[in-house]
Amino acid sequence: MEKMWAGRTAGVTDRIADDFNSSIRFDCKLYKEDITGSMAHAAMLRAKGILSQKEAEQLIDGLQGLLEDLESGTLEFDFGCEDIHMFVEQVLTQRLGDVGRKLHTARSRNDQVALDLRMYLRSQIEEISALVKDVLRAITQQAEKNKGVIMPGYTHLQRAQPILFSHHLMAYAMMLLRDLDRLADCRKRMNLSPIGCCALAGTTYDTDRRFEAARLGFDGVTLNSIDGVSDRDFCLELMSCLSILMMHLSRFSEELVLWSSWEFQFIELSDAYTTGSSIMPQKKNPDMAELVRGKTGRVYGDLMGLLTTLKGLPLAYNKDMQEDKEAVFDAVDTVKMCLTVFAPMLATMAVKPENMKKAAQAGFINATDLADYLVKKGMPFRSAYKISGQIVAKCIEKGCVLETLPLSEYRAFSELFGEDLYAELDLNACVEKRVSEGGTSLSSVEAQIAYVKERLA
User: Fold this and answer.
1) Among 156, 278, 408, 436, which one carries the catalytic annotation?
2) Which residue in 123, 277, 383, 443 is the catalytic one?
3) Is the peptide bond before 316 cis (omega within 30 degrees of 0)?
4) CB atoms < 10 A from the CB of 406, how many?
5) Cα–Cα distance, 344 to 342 (Å, whole number)
6) Choosing a second label site near 305 at 20 to 30 A (CA), which of 135, 149, 153, 376?
7) Is 245 exposed, middle or buried (CB count within 10 Å of its CB: 0-12, 13-18, 19+)?
8) Could you confirm whether 156 is annotated as catalytic?
9) Which helix (DSSP H) or strand (DSSP E) does residue 152 occupy?
10) How far apart are the C-alpha atoms of 351 and 269, rounded to whole Å?
11) Helix, strand, or coil here: 158?
């Protein structure tokens, strides 16, 4: 088959080179954007008098028919074509004759692929954002359902202070809200049309780039034609946003894995989102959470791969840039798959409040409140801190907890201890005293839940 670019050369390449050079196996994903973009291009050429009304109508009708045939399955991709652009042009030319050959006037595959990719990723951002919102809804539902459940908060994976389980969940909600903001911000910079930049230098035809951009829903056009065809920042920025999003899901997954273990038993994941062992009948493995954690590295790899591909490229377009699609497509598809399973996994998770509270009671996590009690009585914090540590050591020695150590033992350390001490050490009181904005008190957590629900609405 003679290549569309035959002329300077004979247009004949070795079969192995053809396979190596071809991108249609993966860029066929862009068929809808390629065809839609071509319709807008035909309309612009007509508006500027470069094509006649009849020619533009033939092209637009032909492209619409091609789109419908692809979506119905009547037409299949020809993987012998070099890329999706060549496939569309070839079929159109077969159907319309010479009129089909006029479509590529005043554009290049360089600006065409940049256009297609921006349009495709723009729509993918919308789909990913909707999936992130599903996860946020699952988080807020679990937080509302378990608002008063107390658990140990951790630092260094050591029990630190009592918190509400709902407070812990809302920390992840705040992370995901930032992810939504990042995706929306990324979309703004992505939403500029490169079509009309042509190969790199623009075109001699009197075109209207802004007409075409507006028709395709862009906010404007790229302002430098060299940058327009060689820029892949929008891919990198999206992949960076997706990497951060996956990092958040991975951290959450790690905690789900820990919490569902026999050592913690804070939660139980639904059978629908776990698997068993082929040899150990007692096992219930959190495979979905583990896979999300594992696939995070894959998304990181996609980002690092494309960063490395682009780092040494001279301007403007180079064939290396064909490597952008597989990386960004894989990152997008992986993230969508992870989010799709994550929301229902969270929504169906069973919480075990008694186990959480039992763990909180056993870890001396109200020791800071013990020190605060002495500070309120007038003792300097550092002195109160030291005495509180000594009292914890005494409890460990006697095999008791702060709530059960007799007042006489406390008073051996300081005369400031009184009968009001035990009310201060109650875990519920410890939580409710954290009244600072964003803290773990119930009123604070309710405000956080209301904020997230308002953002979602």
Assistant:
1) 156
2) 277
3) yes
4) 10
5) 6
6) 135
7) buried
8) yes
9) strand 150-155
10) 9
11) strand
- Ranges of H-type helices in 311-415: 324-347, 353-361, 367-376, 381-398, 407-411
Mean pLDDT of 172-201: 98
Alpha helices in 154-266 (DSSP H): 165-190, 209-215, 225-230, 233-259
Neighbours of 118 (CB within 10 A): 24
State the pLDDT confidence band at 170, using cuts at 50, 70 and 90.
very high
Q: What is the pLDDT of residue 283?
A: 79
CA angle 332, 334, 336 (to 5 degrees): 70
The alpha carbon dihedral of 301, 302, 308, 309 has a sign of positive
Crossing angle between the packed helical segments 324-347 and 287-310, to the nearest 10 degrees: 160
Q: Specify whether 277 is catalytic.
A: yes
Q: For the residues 117-130, what does the mean pLDDT come to? A: 98
Strand, helix or coil at 222?
coil
Write out pLDDT tens, residues 17-30.
Answer: 888 989 999 999 99
CB atoms inside a 10 Å sphere around CB 446: 15
Q: What's the mean per-residue pLDDT of the chain?
A: 95
Q: Is 316 helix (H, G, I), strand (E, B) or coil?
A: coil
Specify the 3-state DSSP secondary structure of 350. Answer: strand
List Cα–Cα distances, 60 to 90, 194, 217, in angstroms: 15, 21, 18
Q: Are 305 and 327 in contact (CB under 8 A)?
A: yes
CB 121 within 8 A of CB 234: yes
362: confidence class by pLDDT, cuts 50, 70, 90: confident
pTM: 0.92
**Hey, what amino acid is at 144?**
E
Sequence-distant (≥ 6) Cβ neighbours of residue 18 within 8 angstroms: 82
8 pLDDT exceeds 90? no
- Whether the Cβ atoms of residue 266 and residue 354 lie closer than 8 Å to each other: no
Structure tokens belonging to residue 403? 């709530």
What's the pLDDT at 91?
97
What is the tens place of the pLDDT at every residue in 213-234? 999 999 999 999 999 999 999 9
Helices (H) and strands (E) in the chain, counts: 20, 6
Distance between CA atoms of residues 74 and 84, nearest Å: 17
